User: Fold these one by one.
Assistant:
Number 1:
Amino acid sequence: MRGAIKAMQLHVIEGYIQSLYLVEYDHGLLLLDGGCRSDVGTVLRFINTELGRPIGDLTLVVVTHMHPDHAGAATRLRQLTGCGIATGEAGGHWYDGLEGRLMHLTDLLLARWVAHRLKRAHRRLWYPAILKADHYLADGQPLPGFSQWQALSTQGHTDRDISVWHPDSGRVYVADLMVKVKGRFIPPFPVFHPNRYRRSVERIGALQPRHVLLAHGGEVQLTEADYQYLQSKAPRCPQTHWRAVKARFQRVWTGS
């Protein structure tokens, strides 16, 4: 018989191109983000081999936003384990319509490019463009089955990003709200809503978390100077795929 588990244990799993955070309780397991499609086996092996628990103990997977390294594994994990999927409230689907499907393909290519930069072997990344979640969380709402954690609306990277806050431990998982590059914290790409983005960074700073969990950069601690630097680098106009392509064509056209 397996021994008693502490009230909460946080496990960090190296995903395909990002860090995955699995929270362990006696009553179930909480995955703080949906990872890549290729992370399905990684997560299930960790649960079964490292934790010695049945995969059915995975109770809830959070999808902070719809990018391939955050939503890719969620639907398949639900099929295999029976877990629920929770995401933030937002109108419509992120990849809705023709333009949305093109953006879905572009984001898959970007994820493939990141994997190549990280020297990762070629693995499956395709996942459904439309997420059918079991729970749509309002700002400040506790996670179903894990009331110690709550969803925070931290939009900007997309129109539906959420972070996950655990007040008792002072930990907040912010997904792609920031990335760590060469020891500095900078905004992600893309940023669709610059004003919302700056407000989201300000909101996380106001929480004064003891630990910030990044999808790309691990568990870190930010100083006031770090938040100020991040705000100074935050864009004032949208930085998106289409604007980047347009700017590149303009540079080629003008020879600049």
Number 2:
Amino acid sequence: MYALLLALIYLCFISLGLPDALLGSAWPQMRLTLGAPLAWGGFLSLLITCGTILSSLASGFLLRRFSTGRLTAISVAMTAAALWGFSVSRSFPALCLWCIPYGLGAGCVDAGLNHFVALRYEAKHMNWLHCFWGIGATAGPLLMGQCLSQGLGWQRGYGLISGIQILLAAVLLFSLPVWKHQPPQREAVLSVEESTAAPSRKKSVILPALTAFFLYSAVELTTGLWGSSFLTEYHGLSADTAAQWISLFYLGITLGRLGSGFLSIRLSDDAMIRLGEVICLLGILALLLPLPDGFLRWGLLLTGLGCAPIYPAMLHATPKRFGTTAAQSLMGVQMACSYLGCTLMPPLTGLLLSHISMGLFPAALLVFLLLMAGMSQAAARA
């Protein structure tokens, strides 16, 4: 039953990833259909992530009232409904309204599942689970790009992903009894909880850890949201080609987390974070330097490979750093900081780039990455 439960959580992470990259890959075409400025894509992202922050902060309370499985099924169903709403919308205000359930559906399930896995499974499973998120995040823009290239429109792309989400929600609903069979907590987590040094360590780690989550999301979400626009506006690629190329970023995350699962057997969480930062730096430099356009694909792939181990390692370290008593609440706070980075930085970056030059997109990523490296190192030393 433990293996079946783990398989269900893998399925949940695919569901989490499917809608995450849709807006960024579809926006170059969406804005033309709606007659909207480029920067308005950041406003939609802002609305989605505001809802996600609220539900993430409420995750501790909701998980105490509902089981993890039940809350996950409800959240996936909400996301499916929001995606259907996107598929039938014909105006920007309508999209804004559907952004509310879009965001609320993601926050609780994300915080709840990450806490559940960090508490009860080894680091390799955290990486592989987020690899399955990458499968969903890679499939999303690929399916959207296919719909755009065949002239079906972005509405059909959202409708297709909505149908997949509805199917996943049905599977989760009928498998609720499986969630009653939970593996025990990890011994490493229990040992930290009992340590007399834990309270002082918690205080010194909290601020840099939260800031690192904020900055990681700035890197990942800014790449996902504005990567296609960078390729179309600055390098002159077509919208369907840009949507397919940006999927390389999510493919890098997917493949990177698959490999990170094996590396994490040997390397600590902090070592995995440092390795990811170095690879991510190489990818951003490939986007920043004046190289032939063919290198852009490698830059996106390397940036994704670098992002791959960072987020799972930071999540997996949470119970070990703070203990089980504080981990559930702090997991929600960390997720909220992550979503705050999603909320603020992509739209602010888009606003800045729209007024200066989309060519500065890689430079913005570089600034976020260097700041994140400093915060993650401070958290590791604390």
